[in-house]
Structures are given as C-alpha cells and as structure tokens.
Amino acid sequence: MSALTTPGERRGATLSPVSPRRKITDRAVQGLVYLAFALAIIPLVSVLWTVIGHGLARLDADFFQFSMNGVSGKDAGGGAYHAIVGTLEQVAITTVIAVPIAVLTAVYLIEYSGNGRLGKVISFFVDVMTGIPSIVAGLFVLALWLLTFGFDFSGFAGSLALAILMIPTVIRATEEMLKLVPNDLREASYALGVPRWRTIVFVVLPTARTGIVTGVMLAVARVMGETAPLLLTIFFTKAINTNAFDGPQGSLPTFIWEQIADSNATAHDRAWTGALVLIALIMLLNLAARLLARGARTTGR
From which residue to which does the signal peptide run (predicted)? Predict the structure, then answer.
C-alpha cells in the first residue's frame, strides 16, 4: 500500500462487504420484530373495534344530558351524565391528593435520602404499594374511613382509594425523570450559591416536568378505569350528585358494571357506550398530556 494513501482510503480498504448470512439474519430478526408488534396490537385493535361497534348505538345527546334516575334497565332512555360528572370529580380529587405526595416523596428519595435507611424503607413500601390489588385499597378505605371514622359513602372516599393506587405509580415515574436530570445542572446551580431547595424547585423539577406530567397522566389513565375500590366506597346511585363529599356518587366504571349486570339488551347498549366514553376520556387526557409536554419543550427552547 502506498505511503500516500489517506487514512480514509486505508479504512475503506480493510472493510469487507456484509455477508449474505448477516443480511438474512438481519431481515429475519426485523421480520420477527414486526410480527411481534402486529401480535401485540391485534388485541388493542380488537377491543377498540368491539367497543366502538357496540357503543355507537347509544352515543347521542341524551346519554350526556340525563342520568338514570327513574329509568329502569329495560327503558330506552337514560344516560350517564351522573357517572361522567362523578368520574371527573373523583379523578380530579385523586390527582390533587396523590400528585403532591408522590412528587415530594420522589424528590426526597432522589435528592435527599442518598443511601440512608429511611430512603430504603420508603422505596420498599413504594414497591409493596405498586403491587397492591385495587380491591385491597378499597377495603382499606372502607374499613378506616367508613367503618372506623363513620363517614358515609361518597366520591371523596373513592378518591382516597384511587389515591392509594396512584401514588406509587407517580413516585416511580417522577424518580426516573429526576434521575435523567444531568448532575451538571445541579452542580452549576450550587456553584452559584443557590440553596438546594431552590435548585430543586427552579432547575431540577422544570427540567423533568415533561416526564413527570406524562407519568401523572399515565397514572390518571390507570385509576380512571378502576372499578373494585369504587364499588366499596362510593356505593350506587342513579341520581346526579355533584358534591363528591356528601352521599353516594356515580362513576363510569360502576355505571358500566351496573348496566352490564342487567340482563336487558338496552342496558347492555348503555354499558358499551359508557365504556366508549371512558376510553375517549382517557385518550383525551393522554393527548392533553402530550400537547402539554410538547408545549413545555417548545417553551424550554
């Protein structure tokens, strides 16, 4: 080889073309990935197709304007207005309770605890709470809030049960986002004499805000469809109750459960439409989270 040969030419001379065996292996693995994706998406498409096909039968203005008060299962009228209002109020209260507790806990675990014993204990209990069945959360609130303290069934009691399920999910999501914040940002802030708490509030949390919001919305989507804890805490009502702190309150999961338990086809149509509305609400919340995250990134630039 000539001494005047450039480094690029020398590297090109040593490179050999990709062997047919490697090409075949690459194509085979790529095909398996596509096949796995198709198999994973089939159940999702099937569920959406089934819910949309059955749910459109009662998707009308009456469904959003009227409750089931005075309407029996075989009657053609009635709607889920009371359940939609109850679900939105309960999820809003759950978010207000769970998000501050979860975010502050995650901040302590990442920014303050280090390898301390208290941090390890908290992490252990968060892991335990992540695996708690939803009905256990409902039983806990039933035993403590309703039976021990003597409070009545209410939407707030349901929110307490949902908060137990939401807190560990938000904690883990927030932890992962805080870990992704570069330490250089923290050290630069400390070098300027900024206290740790101000660094966390004005540097760390804004940097991780997009991921935290996404984690919160995923947690909201999870608890919005929970049925078991609500059956034990909010009870049943067909009337409109906009006060989540007084008396039984409806919700979409219990509305669907109640209607599908009826043997009448008309009630089943309402149940399918309720499921469609619940899926639509969850999709809208996820879309709002994505738009909020995109807006936060644009603002950050």
Answer: none
